[in-house]
Design a protein that fits this description.
Layout (H helix, E strand, L loop, with lengths): L1 E6 L6 H10 L3 E4 H8 L5 H7 L4 E2 L2 E2 L1 H9 L4 H26 L4 E5 L14 E6 L2 H9 L6 H9 L4 H7 L2 E4 L4 H15 L6 H6 L3
Parallel strand pairs: 1-5, 1-6, 2-5, 6-7
Antiparallel strand pairs: 3-4
Length: about 210
């Protein structure tokens, strides 16, 4: 089974690319969605213990958590130490399921793939990329997003240029969604049948 790591900076079109992989019959693990689930379940007690007052009614309040994180120099590192192992366990369960059903390809959609060393755990890396002005317009159109929040998120991510340099494949998402879809379709055709080693090397016996 070939493991594809899909990544890109905020607002670059990861969700659009992931949807197209799914339309090609390929299962995708959404790390962001998993984090949201953890913030409503398994990670809540540990986050509250590390950052008192960051939860309410049994779920993580993201606004309160962000304020707590930015008030501690090691806040993000402490949060990552809680959340990342839980996400990694969910990734393994996903990959075990895909391998068990005989899938020839599976996608891990991870925003901080390179930043967390996740690129060492996949066979192929794919970065979605668009010009800075397109990225900014998309992100600032999101409900509740501010320039300050946007800049804070960017500060914790490698630049788009760095990600493109590290990628095995780059998908240009600056055009229409149909253009992005065609690029993903072409990429899937190129990857079909390619042997993968990452699952047996990094996941199967973990």
């Amino acid at each position: 089974m070939l493991i594809v790591g899909l990544t890109g900076s905020i607002g670059m079109g990861k969700s659009t690319a992931a949807a197209r992989f799914r339309e090609n019959g390929i299962s995708v693990f959404d790390a962001d969605a998993e984090v949201h689930a953890l913030y409503r379940g398994a990670a809540v007690a540990r986050i509250e213990a590390a950052f008192p007052g960051s939860t309410e009614a049994g779920v993580v309040d993201r606004g309160r958590l962000l304020r707590a994180l930015t008030s501690h120099a090691d806040g993000f590192a402490r949060l990552e130490a809680i959340v990342h192992p839980l996400v990694r366990a969910a990734e393994k369960a996903f990959l075990d399921t895909e391998a068990g059903r005989g899938a020839d390809m599976a996608v891990l959609e991870i925003p901080l793939l390179f930043e967390t060393g996740g690129d060492a755990l996949v066979d192929v890396t794919v970065v979605v990329s668009a010009p800075p002005e397109s990225q900014r317009e998309r992100v600032l159109a999101r409900p509740g997003m501010t320039i300050a929040k946007f800049e804070e998120i960017l500060s914790r991510q490698l630049s788009d240029e760095e990600k493109r340099q590290l990628a095995d494949f780059v998908v240009d998402t600056s055009g229409a969604i149909t253009d992005t879809g065609k690029q993903i379709d072409s990429l899937v055709e190129r990857l079909r049948g390619r042997a993968g080693e990452a699952y047996h090397r990094c996941w199967a016996g973990a």
